[in-house]
Specification:
Layout: E1 13-19, E2 36-37, E3 40-41, H1 42-51, E4 56-63, E5 81-85, H2 90-102, E6 110-113, H3 123-136, E7 140-145, E8 150-153, E9 159-163, E10 169-178, H4 179-192, H5 199-205, E11 211-214, H6 227-240
Parallel strand pairs: 1-4, 1-6, 4-5, 7-11
Antiparallel strand pairs: 2-3, 6-10, 7-10, 8-9
Helix pairs in contact: 2-4, 4-5
Amino acid sequence: MSAAVPGTREPQCWAVLPAAGIGARMGAELPKQYLQVAGATLLEHSLRALLDCGRIAGVVVALHPKDNRARQLPVFQDARVWTVPGGELRSESVLAGLDAVAERAAPRDWVLVHDAARPCLQTTDIDELIEAVAARDTGGILAEPIVDTVKQASPDALVERTLDRTTLWRAQTPQMFRLEELRQALNQARARGAAVTDEASAMELAGYPVQLIVGPAGNLKVTRPEDLPLAAWYLQSRITGASL
């Protein structure tokens, strides 16, 4: 990462995986992180991607307080994984995870926050994010440039205008920031009652620059039932070595 100061250690990388949601939009009996795809749950795929990156010292998974499923998964036996109770909101779960990381890490260590419902993340994507953040010493996120024509709609579903897509990106995860800066940014956003849907939003509100690192289209978020077959295709193609 950044150059070390004599008498100090290099900043380490940690990860937080918020997985306390119930996945209501999936319409399934199980929370979506426990849906099976390509031989494992979404949660297992996402967690393994982080653990396969040798630069990550440990991963905190924020679970629903009544979740009894996660600890039955073999991947949770890895010594680098520990769990904390999550909150009702994603930001609350992330904060719980960051607080747990802070008990082991230094304030200027880096934290990568990743969605449990993004099972197709690859180690190479994580490495590229870490390298880009280290090169500029500036937090950043994986994101995908929008190629579709984008319309802004009125409340009655009529087109108001066409947006300039050359300036628009679709945010992905992981999102990587300094531990203490992200903790403070999320706490400030909560104190202001600001709705933040990702970590970058909180950092932006706090005045920090956030860089965009191009992420692959395959790093999709499973939100609706129709997303599962596509995620399965990406994962299975990787297993069989097919070209994507």
